[in-house]
Amino acid sequence: MVIEELKLPKEAREVFALWLISPLLELQLKPHHVPFKLTCQWNALLKKYTSEKEENILIDEPALIFQRNVYLPRAKEQLVDNPDIMRMLFYEAVYNIVESRYPCEEIHYDMLAGLQALVEFGAFDSQMHNSEFYSDHVKQFYPDHLRRKKLYQYIPGLRPKTTVEKRLMSRHGSTSLQYGDLINDNTIQRKYLEFCWTLPYYGSAFFHGQIERRHTKGRKLVELIGDSDLDVLVAVNRDGVFVINENTVAVLLGLTYQELSWEFAESKCAKNNPNCMPCLFLKFEVVDEQQTVSKLFQIFSKEAIMVDALIQSCVDMLEAESQETGGGDAVDGKTAENTKQAFFSRLTSMDDTHMCNKMDKLCLTTFNAEGECIDNR
Fold first, then answer.
1. Fewest C-beta atoms under 10 Å: which of 93, 106, 167, 244?
2. Which residues in the chain belong to E strands, given as ranges?
3. Distance (Å, rounded) from C-alpha 329 to C-alpha 277?
């Protein structure tokens, strides 16, 4: 019905799905789900899958959203040429960039802002498009962590070399000059998406969680002030699982399905103790001091059971597709190795400040080949 109302082609059925989304919870609906029934059950779902206070649950209302299907293969999306579908994918990508869900380097945020400005404002006009013009719009182009003032900016007399508004103005001008007036919105939108397709966590479903901070000399002081856990976003797509620091918008860990094993766990006391959250364990191998060891990473989340279910669905789907194409086992075969190489080429193709694994920042338990715990920090 939505596809007919929006006059989209049939291929949109595979590209998009219905979601129920609120600030507290996001659910992709299955074909048999009835949105009205789930909306009526929303408070119960929030109590089950979030740690929110009762007053926040009572005022939370979901919106029915038509957005990208988390199971859509990236390769299939890249073949889409319908302008209406591309426009919808473009604006969803913009949302995820601006909402800090797709970590990037600053230079890439600037590049994307320039492309978006060309779509939103047209060709750059120096008479109209000055820094004051952009000050009212900058929130639409840059995530909050880039717009926040740095500590030194609160010191009288110290100012940044350039503001976000001036960066946006500069990028709008250079992008307009690069593509000229002949380029149309669809081409620019595709350019934006082409960059986003290189991000390993593109097209993910997002879940809220917490992780323990790594044991350091200052850890006890942190615990005393009541901030021993770190809020993270857990992003899951067809490629793998990613853990993103919500405050710094940096990738802490990214793993393909071929290199991880996982386990959902819930304490018996969890139902009676709201502070006892279910968790997801991620286990993976690394080479440490010339020996292969296993690392165990724990994520606490009321949504852990949904993360577990989505990971299982993605793995099952990849294995089924691999069997259909005669590619062998999706986890152990050559197809898996090719997928892994493509994944890491995306993960390491950019600067390493925000994009690469930061295991030195994580609280990990290390096991040797005999299964003995040799480190826990």
1. 106
2. 16-21, 26-28, 63-68, 205-212, 229-236, 240-245, 250-256, 260-265, 279-288, 291-300, 364-367, 373-376
3. 34
**Distance from the Cα of residue 188 to its chain's centroid:** 23
Nearest 5°: the CA angle 197, 353, 67 is 30
Name the token pair of 168: 């946006």
Q: DSSP state, 359?
A: G
Checking 336-344 for CB contacts under 8 A at 24+ apart, the result is 336/258, 337/258, 339/239, 339/256, 339/258, 340/256, 340/258, 340/259, 343/200, 343/239, 343/240, 343/254, 343/256, 344/256
pTM: 0.87
What's phi and psi for 294, nearest 5 deg?
-105, 135
Strands (E), 126-215: 205-212
Helices and strands in the chain: count of H runs, count of E runs: 16, 12
Q: Is 181 exposed, middle or buried (0-12, 13-18, 19+ CB in 10 A)?
A: exposed
Instruction: Report residue 267's pLDDT band, with 50, 70 and 90 as the boundaries.
Output: confident
pLDDT digits (tens, 9 = 90+) for 314-356: 999 999 998 887 765 555 444 445 544 555 555 555 445 555 6
CA-based torsion, 298, 336, 344, 27: positive or negative: negative
Cα(102)–Cα(104) distance, integer angstroms:
6
